[in-house]
Amino acid sequence: MENLDLLTKKLSYSVKKLVAVNSISFCYVELPIDQHCALFGRNNLGKTSLLNVLKLHLFPEISFNDCQNKFAFKSSKGELYAGDDSYLYYFPSDSSFLILEAENIHGCFCLILFKSNSSFGYQRLALPCAYDDIREQFWDIEQQTVNNGLGKIGRAVQQECRDRSRMPASA
């Protein structure tokens, strides 16, 4: 019984938060999913798409090729979305990020998905910290003078945009 308790403790894993930056139909959204949460809104605002971000984080995929079979993203009419449509929806720009904050026995960590240079591809970055520790890199929530007081794009995203704009077109 003691071994089972130890195994259960080692396998302890919880998803705490989803964050979308310049993705889906959001400029910026944080969704706490480690507590009760209700999503309300008109059709086609991105509620289901935000929850589908879990598939992108938890499936061992790195591209939207063969998207219909891998992810099975569907429209409200039940039609499957093609890979190029899904890719451009989740990663419309080089400043698009999907972040999952989770926790295991070692503490909080973040998985960050971002657009890669491969066709319909994305990459993963894992950071051993809570999202609160890196939020300012993605969104400056303290900046109250822009976006009707909702904040502005963070330093890392601004730098990424500047770096990408200086790259040659073939890069």
How does this structure look, described?
- With 171 residues, this protein is an alpha+beta fold.
- Helix content is 31%, strand content 26%.
- The protein is built from 6 helices and 7 strands, in the order H-E-E-H-H-H-E-E-E-H-E-E-H.
- The strands form 2 sheets. Strands 2-1-3-4-5 form a 5-stranded antiparallel beta sheet, with helices on one face.
- Strand 3 (97-104) and strand 4 (107-115) form a beta hairpin.
- It is globular.
- The termini are far apart.
Specify the overall morphology: globular
The tally of strands reads: 7
Query: What is the ordering of alpha helices and beta strands?
Result: HEEHHHEEEHEEH
Main sheet makeup: 5 strands, antiparallel
What keyword list fits this structure?
171 residues; alpha+beta; 5-stranded antiparallel sheet; two-stranded antiparallel sheet; 6 helices; 7 strands; 26% strand; globular; disordered C terminus
What is the topology?
Elements: H1 2-10, E1 13-23, E2 26-32, H2 47-58, H3 67-70, H4 83-90, E3 97-104, E4 107-115, E5 122-127, H5 131-138, E6 139-140, E7 152-153, H6 155-166
Antiparallel strand pairs: 1-2, 1-3, 3-4, 4-5, 6-7
Provide a compact summary of the structure.
The protein has 171 residues and is an alpha+beta fold. The chain is built from six helices and seven strands; from the N terminus they run αββαααβββαββα. It has a five-stranded antiparallel β-sheet with strand order 2-1-3-4-5, with helices on one face.
